[in-house]
């Protein structure tokens, strides 16, 4: 079935993308919220790194969880009600993932102007798990962008049945026998 057939396959693709986005968001939230590592300095001082170290990571966990809940609700809606969805979640997930990536970059490289040391030299497992969470957040964003495209396509096809069709459907004109 092609893009212009508007068949049942488009609904399956949307449901699959929503399921993938849900899994990626849930995994991102779990990876970030369970990320912690303790390192001993000088054999006496224990320093602990958790997602609570930066408020953006805490916000990321909350928003990934809210995004996963919203995506689950939209998945149920997609499977049973078949109405159009909203794009706000796409923008929120993208914004929080970008902000988290910026702070993660500071953890990786440090920032001399702010006198922030490199955390990833001492907390390698913490940084790897944080990176995995951010990759999951980006995957969820891309899945949500694809879903948004499908929703936009479905919206515009209501106004133009030939929207994005390379070969528009031809309407047969029947000659009036009375003329």
From TrEMBL:
It is found in: Cell membrane. Its main location: membrane. It is a multi-pass membrane protein. Signal peptide: none annotated. It holds the Pfam family CASP_dom. The keyword Repressor does not apply. It comes from the Eukaryota. GO terms for cellular component: plasma membrane. Keywords: Cell membrane, Membrane, Transmembrane, Transmembrane helix. Residues 10-143 form the Casparian strip membrane protein domain. The keyword Membrane applies. The chain crosses the membrane at residues 15-32, 53-76, 88-109, 130-153. InterPro entries: CASP/CASPL, CASP_dom. Coiled coil: none annotated. Homodimer and heterodimers. Belongs to the Casparian strip membrane proteins (CASP) family. This is CASP-like protein. It comes from Opuntia streptacantha.
